[in-house]
Amino acid sequence: MKKIAVITGASSGFGREFVRQICMSKGYKFDEIWIIARRKERLEKLAEKYHKQSFKILELDLSKTECLEKYSQILQEENPNVRLLINNAGLGKIGNFEEIDLNDNMNMIDVNIKALTYITQETLKYMKKSSRIIQIASSAAFLPQPKFAVYAATKSYVLSFSRALERELKSRGIYVTAVCPGPVETEFFRVASNNEKPKSFKKFFFEPAHLVVSKALYDSRKGNYISIQGKSMKALQILSKVVPHSLILKFIK
């Protein structure tokens, strides 16, 4: 069985950066990397850029059930040895809940929760001891976030699900790491904020994408259940544990 890595949302942002760092590192040896996204042309350009690595391009919209089923079918046909799964695909929209389009809210749930859960469960059938799963959650998972209500709730699910799964899979020797980045200036953030410039104070919390990804890969290799890049996000995690959320929410505008 060929040894592979699977990366969802690989056409931009963290996904593309994961591909870059894995391809540039001597520590990763995969017979093939499966890259998944809606935009095939971007995936093709990515594969061309790192032509020394063999890729399988999967043009799939993970918000659609038929695309998830197609992924399962491909796994059955190929029967690979999945050494690394990176569930990076995600959607977000900033704004008051009732003002965000219903389809956008439902798509967030479909991609951030449904697709991630489906991909994880189906892929686990092809994972063996010492395999690793990296789930992209968010610092938004630490507490409720007005004007980011659905997104934060979906990422709370990812964090909770990942921590429970990490305990369940210990006996199989499979490691699960939840990544909880703060805001990063990627295409995701621009889409979520409708191309609005971030407030000046928010720039204090921004982390470069390459540092978030580098830390995630490091924590995964170490077998850490959570990966948080930057002192500000680590402080937020601690704050969310010791200060009642009701009190924090009073100060959030």
UniProtKB/TrEMBL annotation:
<comment type="similarity">
    <text>Belongs to the short-chain dehydrogenases/reductases (SDR) family.</text>
</comment>
<protein>
    <submittedName>
        <fullName>SDR family NAD(P)-dependent oxidoreductase</fullName>
    </submittedName>
</protein>
<dbReference type="InterPro" id="IPR036291">
    <property type="entry name" value="NAD(P)-bd_dom_sf"/>
</dbReference>
<dbReference type="Pfam" id="PF00106">
    <property type="entry name" value="adh_short"/>
</dbReference>
<dbReference type="InterPro" id="IPR002347">
    <property type="entry name" value="SDR_fam"/>
</dbReference>
<keyword id="KW-0560">Oxidoreductase</keyword>
<dbReference type="GO" id="GO:0016491">
    <property type="term" value="F:oxidoreductase activity"/>
</dbReference>
